């Protein structure tokens, strides 16, 4: 009789798995939850410094729940996918308000929390409490699709259902926290999307993809769509002191609730937009180099215009703020591409510091 999948994987993990990640010591619910949200669509190496900085500012779920959302977004700036940060804040508040600051052990109650899906809930419960739940993140989908020979794009409901069944069938009776980390590590280090290290894989002997020479075709690719291309004006509006106008983005959509210079669709008249929003009239702008940013579903070109307000012009609107351009550390939580652009425009050369 062959050795069970989980036993082989755990033996491999004991020798090669990651056991020194910061959220593993201690492996308690708040830290595990925070890491799982940060790791959604973000690599471990990128997450680790953010994780440490986040814990310094928000060491407990209570401290996170009680913090202003601006503080949360500022600490998150640069990680992208800002809905995660907003959901993180809402989730902490929900845990405090509905669960008395204790994380629920029931998976349905965990899934009901903001920003937590089935796989994330299972990862938290298995790693923080050792509960017996299967996960199905991107790495695990790839491992199981290849090992079980499941064709099709894993995002399709029918394919995903098959993968869930396989994932549940491999669960061991013990060491659930280690097993969950092990199968994620296997996908990250061995069963990679390109050039997998099949010779080092502990479960390769009964891997369908390897046996049938289908490694390159499994899992099935996402059906291709033409990526939409969008372009917008980014208006760097300065007052007589050289301070920069920022406005809070709407709660939904890109960069939700972050502070940002006004953005106007390229097809719209930006002068009319400024007049309509704030009653502002400005002179001839200075055109700066365009920047490009790729989102999940489309590409965005930002075309910055630097404009000065007439002396004495004022804006009375609680949704806008002026920020100094004398100290880059004083900038609030800006979207990462906007921060890079602003820092390049205002802090890259000494003469610009005198604005």
Automatic annotation (TrEMBL):
Q: What's an example of a GO molecular-function annotation for this chain?
A: metal ion binding
Q: What Enzyme Commission number(s) apply to this enzyme?
A: 3.2.2.31
Q: Which organism is it from?
A: Hydrocarboniphaga effusa AP103
Read off the InterPro entries from this record.
A/G_AdeGlyc_MutY (IPR005760), DNA_glycosylase (IPR011257), Endonuclease3_FeS-loop_motif (IPR003651), Endouclease-III_FeS-bd_BS (IPR004035), HhH-GPD_domain (IPR003265), HhH_base_excis_C (IPR023170), MIG/MutY (IPR044298), MutY_C (IPR029119)
Q: What is the lineage of its organism?
A: Bacteria, Pseudomonadati, Pseudomonadota, Gammaproteobacteria, Nevskiales
Asked if the Swiss-Prot or TrEMBL record annotates the protein with the keyword Nucleotide-binding, the reply is no
Tell me the cofactors it needs. [4Fe-4S] cluster
Catalytic reaction equation(s): Hydrolyzes free adenine bases from 7,8-dihydro-8-oxoguanine:adenine mismatched double-stranded DNA, leaving an apurinic site
The record ties this protein, via PROSITE patterns, to:
ENDONUCLEASE_III_1
GO:BP terms for this protein?
A: base-excision repair; mismatch repair
The free-text function statement in the UniProt record for this protein reads:
Adenine glycosylase active on G-A mispairs. MutY also corrects error-prone DNA synthesis past GO lesions which are due to the oxidatively damaged form of guanine: 7,8-dihydro-8-oxoguanine (8-oxo-dGTP).
> Hey, which family's this protein in?
Belongs to the Nth/MutY family.
> How many cofactors are bound and how?
Binds 1 [4Fe-4S] cluster.
| Gene3D superfamilies in the cross-refs | Helix-hairpin-Helix base-excision DNA repair enzymes (C-terminal) (1.10.1670.10), Hypothetical protein, domain 2 (1.10.340.30), Nucleoside Triphosphate Pyrophosphohydrolase (3.90.79.10)
* Enzyme kind, highest EC tier: hydrolase
Q: Where is the HhH-GPD domain?
A: 38-189
- Tell me which UniProt keywords the record has, alphabetically: 4Fe-4S, DNA damage, DNA repair, Glycosidase, Hydrolase, Iron, Iron-sulfur, Metal-binding
**What protein am I looking at?**
Adenine DNA glycosylase
């Amino acid at each position: 009789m062959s050795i069970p999948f989980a036993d082989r994987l755990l033996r491999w993990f004991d020798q090669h798995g990651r056991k020194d990640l910061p959220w593993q010591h201690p492996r308690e619910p708040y830290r595990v939850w925070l890491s799982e949200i940060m790791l959604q669509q973000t690599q471990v190496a990128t997450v680790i410094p953010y994780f440490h900085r986040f814990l310094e500012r928000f060491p407990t779920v209570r401290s996170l729940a009680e913090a202003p959302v601006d503080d949360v977004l500022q600490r998150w700036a640069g990680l992208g996918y800002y809905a995660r940060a907003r959901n993180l804040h809402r989730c902490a508040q929900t845990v405090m308000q509905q669960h008395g600051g204790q994380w629920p052990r029931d998976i349905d109650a965990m899934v009901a929390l903001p920003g937590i899906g089935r796989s994330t809930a299972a990862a938290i419960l298995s790693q923080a409490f050792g509960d017996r739940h299967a996960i199905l993140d991107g790495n695990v989908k790839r491992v199981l699709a290849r090992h079980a020979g499941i064709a099709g794009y894993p995002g399709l409901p029918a394919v995903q259902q098959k993968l869930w069944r396989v994932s549940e069938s491999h669960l061991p009776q013990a060491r659930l926290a280690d097993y969950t980390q092990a199968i994620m590590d296997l996908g990250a280090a061995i069963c990679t999307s390109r050039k997998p290290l099949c010779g080092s894989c502990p479960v390769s002997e009964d891997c369908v993809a390897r046996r049938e020479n289908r490694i390159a075709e499994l899992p099935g690719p996402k059906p291709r769509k033409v990526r939409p291309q969008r372009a917008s004006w980014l208006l760097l509006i300065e007052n007589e002191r050289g301070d920069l106008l920022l406005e809070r983005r709407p709660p939904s959509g890109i960069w939700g609730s972050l502070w940002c210079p006004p953005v106007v669709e390229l097809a719209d008249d930006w002068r009319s937009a400024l007049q309509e929003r704030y009653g502002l009239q400005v002179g001839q702008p200075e055109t700066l180099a365009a920047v490009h940013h790729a989102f999940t579903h489309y590409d965005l070109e930002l075309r910055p215009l630097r404009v000065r307000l007439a002396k004495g012009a004022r804006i009375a609107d609680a949704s806008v703020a002026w920020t100094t351009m004398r100290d880059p550390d004083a900038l609030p939580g800006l979207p990462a591409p906007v921060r890079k652009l602003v820092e390049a425009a205002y802090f890259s050369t000494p003469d610009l510091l005198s604005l």
